[in-house]
Amino acid sequence: MDPDRGGAVARQPVVATYSIVACDLDARQWGVAVQSKFLAVGSVVPWAEPGVGAIATQSYANPRYGPDGLALLRAGKPAQEVIDELVAADKDRDQRQVGVVDASGRAATFTGAGCLDWAGGRTGDGYAAQGNILVSRDTVDALAETFERNVHLELGARMIECLDAAQSAGGDRRGQQSASLIVVEKDAGYASLSDTVVDLRVDDHEEPINELRRIFKLHEELFDVTPPEDWLEVNAVLRDELEHRLAELGYNGDFASAFDAWAGAANLEERTDGVERIDPVVLDALRRGQR
Q1: Which tens digits make up the pLDDT trace of 86-115?
Q2: Which residues in 217-236 are b (16+ Cβ under 10 Å) and which e?
Q3: Which residues contact 96 (CB under 8 A, 6 or more apart)?
Q4: Among the four 10, 13, 69, 172, which has the fewest Cβ within 10 Å?
Q5: Quick check: 269 and 222 in contact, CB under 8 A?
Q6: Whole-Å CA distances, 9 to 14, 35, 69, 79, 242
Q7: For residue 50, which phi and psi values (nearest 5 degrees)?
Q8: Which fold is adopted by the domain 7-223?
Q9: What angle separates helix 155-168 from helix 208-223, to the nearest 10 degrees?
Q10: Which parts of the chain fold into alpha helices (H)?
């Protein structure tokens, strides 16, 4: 900490961070991905609401930028006006960094003059990328360029690629510690009763981005949806195999009941629908002996 900084900011740990705030308007998704040499960065930086927008607040972060910024977005303010209003009301604005994407995909970023070098950001269609205490601006450029060239990926996977590229470009010059990914979409979360599609945090890890990628793949296995046309018919041969594999894992008796019991224990019940057809992801998990 800089001992010459006065007031509340001087006692506040700096969230030395790089982040990307982004949306996929076709999928109606908004999200934030972030990495930092800071414990549990996901508890401070990312904020998102479907149909409203997403925000990252960092550097000497002002956590009120999250709910206050979402309220401004909810009222119809564009991204740049949201940032203008947030920083205008903040006496410590010079130490703040914030990125915003609004409901229409407009993006804005702000880096206060007092943020520690290298600090800055850039925006493009549907994203704002920013960072502070970085090795160089290459980190932010990597965030932006990786987002732009990975339009074929779903938003969550796309933003993880951005973090990975940013780290390879230099990243936070203090090192790594935590990472976070949040993606929201109306009624697209668990059991279609939540707006949170992905909310994953690595709070303290030597390689937080690699760990975030690992648990994101696990999340995809448990909660993604395989198109119905890709499911497999459970014919007599496949049913015999399934019954045998279930029995090896200790699930005997009525086939449907045994299958449902195993799927529930393996947390794969969201990817099952009876026993006449089977999701290939579920079949692969059973063949691997997943308990």
Answers
A1: 999 999 999 999 999 999 999 999 999 999
A2: eebebbbeeeeeeebeebee
A3: 57, 59, 60, 61, 62, 65, 87, 90, 110, 112, 115
A4: 13
A5: no
A6: 9, 21, 20, 25, 60
A7: -65, 140
A8: Glutamine Phosphoribosylpyrophosphate, subunit 1, domain 1 (3.60.20)
A9: 170
A10: 7-10, 65-74, 79-88, 138-149, 155-168, 208-223, 236-248, 255-265, 280-287
Hey, what amino acid is at 51?
G
| Token representation of residue 36 | 């930092």
Residue 239, token pair as written in the block: 């049913």
For 79, counting Cβ atoms within 10 Å of its Cβ (0-12 exposed, 13-18 middle, 19+ buried), the class is buried
Look at residue 15 and tell me whether its pLDDT is greater than 80: no
Q: What is the mean pLDDT of residues 222-241?
A: 94
Q: Where are the domains of the chain?
A: 7-223, 228-287
Cis peptide before 118 (omega within 30 of 0): yes
Q: What percent of the chain has pLDDT over 70?
A: 95
Name the helix (H) or strand (E) containing 276. Answer: none
pTM for the full predicted model: 0.88
